[in-house]
Amino acid sequence: MQYDTIIVGGSFAGLTAARYLARARRHVCVLDLGDPRHRFSAQPTGMWRRDDDNPHSVLQSLWDEVATYPTVTLLAEAAVKVQAQQEDFVVTNWSGEHIAGRRLLLAFGVSDNLPDIPGLAERWGVSVLPCPDFHGFNYDRKPVGVLNASPRSPEQAMLLSEWCPTTLYLDGSGCDASMREALERRKIRIEAAPVRRLAGDGCNLARIYLADNQVQPLDTLFLTACHQLNSSIAEELGCAIETGPLGQTIAVNGQHMTSIRHVYAAGDICRKTANMTLACADGMTAAMAIHHSLVFETNATEFA
Ligand SMILES: Cc1cc2nc3c(=O)[nH]c(=O)nc-3n(C[C@H](O)[C@H](O)[C@H](O)COP(=O)(O)OP(=O)(O)OC[C@H]3O[C@@H](n4cnc5c(N)ncnc54)[C@H](O)[C@@H]3O)c2cc1C
């Protein structure tokens, strides 16, 4: 069977697109490994619908809803290879099956490269958190730390200081005079020593150990990690890739077309700001463009 669209990645971006295309009576195949980026998170999300929406149940209900459409095939499978063949794309899945489709939507997300500090990875999403925009409000006026894990960390500390008394753990890196001055102006405490380990009960954080023998009480640590694309498919197809301070993203135009004809991308793989609501919006934008291109069989929405 030839699908109208194959979607690689069935999370916020991929499933939103699948639902739109299903309602346009398109035949869609979604392949999904089932490891969305937020899977470690136990926190309410600040999604577009309700502040306390649980992302796991929102995603599950989206999956269940999409599964009811007769023109959609959902496969809990990895896409391992994609080849462009004449007017089709042929996706090979982990089981070795070949799936053909006229359009391809990449929505396979990114993974965070967490710093190798003992006690950190197991607290990710619970007491070690990625983003002030999602979680800052929940910690209103409570002391928090920021780990210097990427070029965005000082900016993250400044944002958090709007809500909370904030300490920036430089983790042995330098901080130039103008940055130090900007941090101190916002009353952000600066700790220079490398971080040795994090400790607390279970996934909770209680203490941070520094290399200069300090042990400080701390309940919550924020960090913006660098990331990597979850699949090399886009690169192998020849899609233009951009490299920013936090890692690679797939270049797209306003309709979420990549630089390769009939290949689209949506969600965290093509944006600098990770966000479930924005990933859904990307999926919707890409799906509308795909539907229009199938109806009119044009390439009018050129990549630019
Ligand atoms: C700890 C944490 C907490 C977060 N909290 C929030 C929050 O509160 N609010 C908010 O708005 N955002 C939050 N985010 C960000 C949010 O998780 C992402 O913005 C969102 O998940 C992006 O959706 P996506 O569809 O682009 O990708 P993802 O949700 O990452 O989904 C990608 C999907 O593709 C699958 N996949 C990967 N490779 C393949 C392949 N080769 N074949 C088939 N399938 C594949 C993956 O398994 C996954 O299911 C958080 C992120 C983290 C890390």
Describe the structure.
The protein has 304 residues and is of the alpha/beta class. The protein has 2 domains: 2-112 and 226-302, FAD/NAD(P)-binding domain; 115-222, FAD/NAD(P)-binding domain. The protein is built from 7 helices and 19 strands. The strands form 5 sheets. Strands 1, 2, 3, 4, 5, 6 and 19 form a 7-stranded mixed β-sheet that branches. A 5-stranded parallel β-sheet has the order 8-15-9-10-11, with helices on one face. Strands 12-13-14 form a 3-stranded antiparallel β-sheet, with no helix packed on it. Strand 13 (207-210) and strand 14 (215-217) form a beta hairpin. The mean pLDDT is 94. The structure holds flavin-adenine dinucleotide.
Ordered list of secondary-structure elements with their pairings:
Elements (H helix, E strand, L loop, with lengths): L1 E7 L3 H12 L4 E4 L23 H13 L4 E4 L3 E7 L2 E6 L4 E9 L3 E4 L14 E2 L2 H4 L8 E4 L5 H8 L5 E4 L7 H9 L3 E3 L3 E5 L7 E4 L4 E3 L3 E2 L3 E4 L3 H5 L3 E4 L2 E4 L12 E3 L10 H21 L8
Parallel strand pairs: 1-2, 1-6, 2-3, 6-19, 8-15, 9-10, 9-15, 10-11
Antiparallel strand pairs: 4-5, 5-6, 7-16, 12-13, 13-14, 17-18
Helix pairs in contact: 1-2, 1-7
The structure holds flavin-adenine dinucleotide.
Flavin-adenine dinucleotide binds next to α1 and α7.
